[in-house]
Amino acid sequence: MDLLQLKEELExxxxxxxxxxxxxxxxxxxVKLNLAAYEHGWKSAKSVNSRVVCIGNITAGGTGKTxxxxxxxxxxxxxGVRVSIVSRGYKRQQKTEGPVVLFDNPDADWxxxxxxxxxxxRVLSQYKVPIVISENRAEAATEAxxxxxxQIVLLxxxxxxxxxxxxxxxxxVDAKNPFGNKELLPYGVLREPLSALKRASLVVLTHCDxxxxxxxxxxxxxxxxxxxxxxxxxxxxxxxxxxxxxxxxKVDLTDIKGPAxxxxxxxxxxxxxxxxxxxxxxxxxxxxxxxxxFYTEDHLRTFEDTRAGLxxxxxxxxxxxxxxxxxxILTTDVYVLSVNLKILGGETEMNKFTDVLYPNFSxxxxxx
Length: 368
Hints:
Blueprint: H1 3-10, H2 14-39, E1 51-57, H3 65-78, E2 83-87, E3 100-102, H4 110-113, H5 115-123, E4 131-133, H6 137-148, E5 152-156, E6 168-174, E7 202-206, H7 213-226, E8 231-244, E9 249-251, E10 258-264, H8 269-278, E11 281-288, H9 297-306, E12 312-315, H10 316-319, E13 334-343, H11 347-357, H12 361-367
């Protein structure tokens, strides 16, 4: 039984809810004590000789953070800004003594880096954006500066990580379920109290196309209770194309319609499935796995044996965790959906996003 299943079972009875609330109180005390240690100087944050911007969230689960990091890195790199990404490599299977660097090394192993950093390195390879992985994010940032002279370091999923000083915080909030029941983990979904929103330099609401305008305004009202001057942007996750992994070629979104099967290991699998259905797929089978699940030959054989000849759809994050001999099992009609984060409102709103990343970036871009 995984932690999510245990939580769901505990929520079904009074005693279980008491246990969860008690655990949330202990968790909250630890969060407050850790933050106070930095605020009062008992612990000190390390500064590096580069701008550091965190892209993170205040809740557990999928808010679209990875796509936001990709959007930020791509926008900066396209304009010649030397950008690096620093990540802890959550749930990587092989730990190392020092930082792991993903940069122009096609033979790298995702097990040493983690699935999300590895996937980002593949997507960003054309822009030569290095990704440095270490549980010690300050050490990783130092390595990024030493090796790549980075002008800006993007801290991937580090809003609750205070050991590395940052110049700005971009906080992502899922419009579908902004703050859950407003309780801390494990009773709720909050990683820290909503008062932490006061540290946000910018808030990006994601999945805005999946809720009503009233729901969006309600989420904004809550955010402004804690940070009344923060800029709040709206965004959507926009499908870009399918990638046929068996033939290594892009496929137009309109080319695949009708019955299909899918699988994923994401924080919010329903969002991925709903996207496929909006694209015209009739999902006959949906496999859901815990976030960051890695795949075995048996997994792939199950997909192949039960798909009844239908196309299989998955994500880049899942694809990078296939076993090395996946081509021997999956030989045709296997597609990865490529999805990008789009800031709504046109160039003006996008400039607000990039200017938080790199002050006056829009002026630098327009001057070219």
